[in-house]
Specification:
709 residues, mainly alpha, three-stranded antiparallel beta sheet
Amino acid sequence: MRNDLGGTVHGPSVQVGAVHGDIRLLGAPSGSTSPPRQLPPVSRVANRESELRALDRFRERAIRGEGPTAVTISGLGGVGKTALALHWLHGIRSTVPDGQLFAGLGAQSPDGPAHPGTVLGMFLRALGVPAEGVPAETEERLGLYRSLTAGRRLAVLLDDAVSAAQVRPLLPSGTCLAVVTSRWRLPGLSVDGCLSMGLDPLGADAAVELLASTLGDGRVRDEPAEARALAGLCAGLPLAVRVVGARLAARPGRPLRAMVRALSDEHSRLDAMTIEDDHSVRAALDLSHRALTGPAARLYRLLALHPGADFGVNAARALSAGPPGEAPAGDILDLLDQLLDANLLFGTGEERYRLHDLVRLHARGLLETEHEPEDRERALRRLLDHYLASATAAECVLDPHHRSLPRTYGPGQPVAEDFHGDPRAALDWLEREHGNLMAAIGLARKADVPAVAWQLADAMWPLFTRRKHYESWRAAHREGLAAARTCGDRAAQCRMLTSGGLGELDTGGHARALEMFNEAARLFRESGDALGHARTLNYRGLACLGLGRLDEAAGFFRRAAEECPRHGDRRAGGLASLNLADTSLRRGDSEPAVTHASRAHEVLAEEGDPYNAARAGILLGRALTGLGRAEEAGERLRRAVAALRESQAGYELARALEALGELAEHLGQNGTARSRYAEALEHYDRLAVPAAGALRARLGRLGGPPSGP
């Protein structure tokens, strides 16, 4: 399915569904890529020997098939669950040669826990499935994930789980190992047969040992009583011990007794962050916050506004900016380094950062008490403007035809990413920030800036059309439509309906899509937007085509071909001609198909749309084949193949190659036909589309291996 203004050239349902044949064809060929190694860097653990021995026994029994293959490590926040899991998993890397997968499940995320379908999509891509080949529905992703992990030797770390229901779909098949960390015991997984391990806070000796290793000097040896007092004030939580240790390490001349006094003095301020009736973690974080420079402390507090799991440098820069005209508060990288050094921030690689959930709560409490509401609102708007301006810049690079509705920003120049006109960089940024963009859409309405919500959904269009994040596609446009209605913006409502409807078409929801397109048509008509109404004719035709209502579809396309150019959109008229050609071919009428496809190719080429011009060339080649004009058909199809190779359009390239195979088979050139079909099949299999099954059957009927290109 082409998610464009009126473009589709294949069957009534284009949902990525069942996988046919050898499952290995979905990923990279064996040996062409390295196994995934997604684990974050190893963390130091102290006095966890008994737990490590238990994990070793778990692994040995699992490999022999004598015990469970999944283990749950539970305990309160900051107790070191993730550190233990990472330490152990890094140590057994050689025993899982097929890789290690990692997902943070976000039990404490302000945006809510991660959806299993989203995580399955990440895992499938890590296992070699191309983004465009990831199935749309969670159940199909689950089946593919289980197939890909069966027979492999890999480990999966599912960090910060919220429930057994969230975890179950993410457990791999066979003898693959899975480690789940959670603040909850997850008894449902124990009932399922998973091994359960509870992790308690460190004992006094272990906490002192961790403090000594963090300091790396002789103060723990010289002040043993004070060291034990500090360990007690930290409640045995490794996070707290490390924060205190970092503060002391930065002041080598400060005695431990001074830190004991400071922590004790802060004890009464911990009511906002109580852990098992002990407030020492809050005290340690308060001390670290007080030791920061003013700009770094301000950034620390404002980072609590960020809605996603991690963030990049420019998101932090947007938050740290002052009012318009005010001088910058400091170099953003220097401020981030201060937070890293204080163990208030964690680096996740490639200049990405995250806040530990306890630290986020601490920063949020300070934000509430030390910043006026107006300051918080301005900072949040700067953050939302950063994501909107950056997503819009990516949209302009990737889909300049799509960028037509206005964007509205708060005061000052928004902090935006610069992609330097590089489509790959723009798409990579959209993919990397996918979760943050979705969180920002939801946050915008809550922050009473609904226009930002629908504008963000609109700007994410290139990501949805290329990477097929269908769950997010639906959610973003559902939220965007509600926001546009709140704004009373009819043009925005129509965009959310049409763009959202095209997503429904891509997943086989043709009836729902038609409802959305009809509503958009009504709104355009009521507002007197003749061009907008004309464009919906193409959309409604596509929905009818998917429903098998060919006469109705053809009527819509004929009207669109006439009305869109008359109201100023010649390209949309060309797409309507393309769709008319497709409709004629489905009826077996080659003569009108040649006329419509020729017209479409001419208009789309003149309008600077080489991709859709090539699609029209495929239809023209097929129509000419049907009329017996083989030489002309071959020339048209070869040109289409060349153009589609250039644009890396895998699905349409496969269709062009398949059409060349049909032409060769029609001429009795079975060896050439097999070669063309085999190459087309490689692309279909990579995308995991249903067309692969029919083509594989056709190849089988021809018999024998392909003869070569």
